[in-house]
Amino acid sequence: MKNIYKNSLVNLNKAKKFLKKNNIIAVPTETVYGLAGNAYSNTSIKKIYKLKKRPKKNPLIIHYHNLQALKKDANIDEKFLTLYKKFSPGPLTYVLQKKKESKISSLANANLKSIAVRFPKNVVIRNLLKQLNFPLAIPSANISSNVSPIKAIDVVDEFGKKISFILDGGRSKIGLESTVISLYGKTKILRPGAISHKKIGKVLKTNISILKKTKKLRSPGLLKRHYSPGIPIKLNCKKADSKTAFVVFGKKYKKAKNIFNLSLKGSLEEAAKNLYKTLRKIKNLKYKKINVVKIPNQNIGIAINDRLKRASY
Ligand code: TXA
Ligand code: MG
Questions:
Q1: What is the pTM of this model?
Q2: Span 257-276, mean pLDDT?
Q3: Which of 217, 167, 193 is nearest to 54 (CA)?
């Protein structure tokens, strides 16, 4: 593909140039691929919302290389530092109080008093962030409500030629979006991910709850149809007819053309990694229906079930 660029010094410099001119590029992260733009620039942020057809009320995550870079933009406390030391860089996003003097475009955080921040672990995006003197707003590189991309080629599947520069960082190791935890107001999980509420609770030595319903559009990823391949999905199924794509988990299922196993050995991590790839494949094979078996609701299984539930809405 002409718009996919391998990770190299030359291409990192090209990426830098695009971003400095307030243009949008696609970048790899360990969770999913994202669309990156200069978080200080209104022009860049507007372009991101337009490309994604994303509602303006749905704020973006700001990505940083390290703590030093964050300090200009958000107020931090002990709780944040404890989690940061344990989980960052990695697949955890923190909602913090935005500093008044922060230069982050208010369009990027939907004019809220808070901002969501993350320190990605993938080395390609980390190298890029290190070389920039501004943070990057990076939402997942999908059209709003679609399945997120986990490979460079998936970004082409979503945007075609609309994105002229895709930085290739290999396949996303985790395959599901980061856990979002709010440390602004009551501590709670807004979006489940690879780092479970249990793991976080252990580190903070307290129980952490997962937000169920909100009246306000706090974390829209938790509310409406999202992460969807655009085909009706039925959950907790025991079988499927041969015309329906059957998504299974574990070794008790036989092989067939319409059977897609998320993890033969029954690993939830592997299932998470395969989920979006599988849904995208099923969509491209033009199936009209998807049945999914019951997935164990523990650890990253909670995040898998969260995405499947929204996809089936
Ligand atoms: O893994 C990830 O987090 C990926 C990669 C590319 O880093 N990014 C990602 O971004 O998933 P996005 O824009 O698709 O999801 C951002 C989520 C949304 O659910 C949004 O509502 C929530 O973060 N969010 C952002 N700012 C927020 C804020 N100030 N308060 C509450 N939720 C916020
Ligand atoms: Mg998204």
A1: 0.96
A2: 98
A3: 217
